Amino acid sequence: MWWSRIRKPGFHIDKNQIYPTLRSYAIITFGLFVNALGWTVFLIPAEITSGGMTGVSSLLYYGFDLPMGLTYLVMNVFLIILGIKVLGRSFAIKTVYATLVLSFFLSILEGIVVDPIVDEDFMSAVVGGILAGAGVGLAISQGGSTGGTDIIAMMINKHRNISPGRILLYLDIIIISSSYLVFQSIEIMVYGYVSMAVVAYTIDMVLTGAKRTVQMFILSRRHEIIANRISSEINRGITILHGKGWYTQQDTKILMILVRKYESNHILRIIKETDPDAFISVNNVMGVFGYGFDPIKK
Predict the structure, then answer these.
(1) How many helices and strands in the chain, by DSSP H and E?
(2) Cα(145)–Cα(96) distance, rounded to whole angstroms?
(3) Where are the domains of the chain?
(4) Residue 211 or 73, more confident
(5) Residue 12 CA to its chain's centroid (Å)
(6) Cα–chain-centroid distance for residue 108?
């Protein structure tokens, strides 16, 4: 057709990528909303400072009554500009989006809850840390980033042989320790460290919890039925190993299966229904790479 002649070469919209992209941004947005809730509902009313650039914004809010959403946005815009020059433009799209959305949520939710909704500061630190960490974990799981100290860590790592994790730890310690200059309270500073630990643990759980893998070895006289049910009901591959029992001196078949941890209960139910006398070994594995699991990263 005539319009195909004027279409720009190389311009193509893959309709199959529209839904996954929209879903990814929806999850990032939800995660940022949860993160903002953790700060504005639990941490800020209890005057607890956690790590990251959000922690710096909270210190400016406590000390100078500056709007948290605005200061977070201004500082991140400056860091993103530096990051583009040092790291390139490829990292910036979702980082810019996450920065704008989180700044918006912080500005909207800021001040809605003034007094702590729980009496114990420790509980505020734990619950706020869980929400803040879960939000960041959801954003990171979709390739997003809240920017801030992450950008600083990546820039330092590019020129110095220091791991980003260690840089982030040092920065968080400095930020939380600075809360003593505002409140003159060791107790508040300790609650900040508690929140930092909870945030780090929650991020790790969100990112790896659903991906934890177990290795199962199954010895059963009805191994063919078990293998067929696992293959059809769970759609997982199975490897048959040839073994020999030393006590019985009989040849036997061993099913080796790698599955997500949440799938193991289904397999155990299949085995119990098929052969209650089967022998099963279940082990956690550090990582599984390949088809059906995680891709090998550079």
Answers:
(1) 12, 4
(2) 9
(3) 8-208, 213-285
(4) 73
(5) 32
(6) 24
Report which DSSP code applies to 145: -
Backbone angles phi, psi at 238, to 5 degrees: -135, 140
Query: Residues 189-199: pLDDT tens digits?
Result: 999 999 999 98
Sign of CA dihedral 45, 49, 55, 58: positive
With vertex at residue 166, the alpha carbon angle to CA 161 and CA 167, rounded to the nearest 5 degrees, is: 75
Token pair belonging to 273: 């229904």
For the CA atoms of the chain, what is the radius of gyration? 25
CA-CA-CA-CA torsion sign (37, 42, 46, 47) = negative
pTM of the predicted model as reported, rounded to 2 decimal places: 0.69
User: What would the two tokens of residue 276 be?
Assistant: 């209650």
**Six token digits for residue 271:** 């085995």
Within 8 A by CB and 6+ apart from 227, the residues are 238, 240, 255
Q: Please check the confidence at residue 37 and state whether its pLDDT lies above 50.
A: yes
- Cα first-last separation, the chain: 44
What is the share, in percent, of the chain residues with pLDDT greater than 90? 31
Fold of 213-285: Alpha-Beta Plaits (3.30.70)
